[in-house]
Amino acid sequence: xxxxxxxxxxxxxxxxxxxxxxxxxxxxxxxxxxxxxxxxxxxxxxxxxxxxxxxxxxxxxxxxxxxxxxxxxxxxxxxxxxxxxxxxxxxxxxxxxxxxxxxxxxxxxxxxxxxxxxxxxxxxxxxxxxxxxxxxxxxxxxxxxxxxxxxxxxxxxxxxxxxxxxxxxxxxxxxxxxxxxxxxxxxxxxxxxxxxxxxxxxxxxxxxxxxxxxxxxxxxxxxxxxxxxxxxxxxxxxxxxxxxxxxxxxxxxxxxxxxxxxxxxxxxxxxxxxxxxxxxxxxxxxxxxxx
Length: 291
Ligand SMILES: Nc1ncnc2c1ncn2[C@@H]1O[C@H](COP(=O)(O)OP(=O)(O)O)[C@@H](O)[C@H]1O
Ligand SMILES: [Mg+2]
What we know:
Elements (H helix, E strand, L loop, with lengths): L2 E10 L2 E11 L4 E5 L6 H9 L6 E6 L2 E2 L5 H7 L1 E4 L11 H7 L9 H10 L1 H5 L10 H13 L5 E5 L7 H16 L3 E6 L2 H7 L2 E6 L2 E7 H6 L1 H8 L7 H5 L5 H4 L5 H7 L27
Parallel strand pairs: 3-8, 3-9, 6-7, 7-8
Antiparallel strand pairs: 1-2, 1-4, 4-5, 9-10
Helix pairs in contact: 3-6, 4-6, 7-13
The structure holds adenosine-5'-diphosphate and magnesium ion.
Magnesium ion binds next to α1.
């Protein structure tokens, strides 16, 4: 198992945000963690990346207990994160932001840099632009691209679709699938359960600090309880794929190839140099962060 949480408890003062979370992420998988606001999704990712410590329980990476390993060492070990609310450096250029992703590495990062620009041609176009003047969708691409510069074995993504227009949501999810196809394991946290379940191999449902369901993603997509709680009014543009019963549901919803994604990324956005208005991002608005 690449990554494993065993009975993890995390507190913020007296508040117990995680009440015994256990989950596993195997090499090559896309695993989704879905759940409502305040369920503990961000806390789970922060516990994996080392920004919060467990009050009880353990985190294992490649079989080793990493509970006492500092965050920067976890990045070097292969745990990459694109944080909630982007976390980019607004005054630095796109290029400088990408390079920050490789800050802990001593080896050559030119391959990963080229790959980030290839996956996100928009970032290549905006290489010298101040990151803070990019649109919400572009900043999300930058956050993911930067995480790739650390050459992660597992990429932790915290609500990459948050605040984005539907077309951009499709693009981001297609690129996530492409990153996985190229060999990176993904742990995807989402409130957008519909999309996350269509992309993932397996999924966990988190409710107020506890895992309440764990199953192949296709099973959860068809589960009446999960649908009532997380998929109501979130059917998106492809109701056929959702309505179809049975295990073939996920096969119906294979995302577009990365090539078509790149083409779409040029359409429907504002003129060069101006942040797009269509995907305004409530940046960090609901990210309580007392560190
Ligand atoms: N820095 C913090 N200080 C105190 N409580 C926090 C902090 N961060 C998160 N919490 C609480 O922990 C719980 C889980 O939060 P979080 O992991 O951000 O949930 P999610 O990402 O699923 O919305 C919530 O009740 C939240 O209010
Ligand atoms: Mg969160």
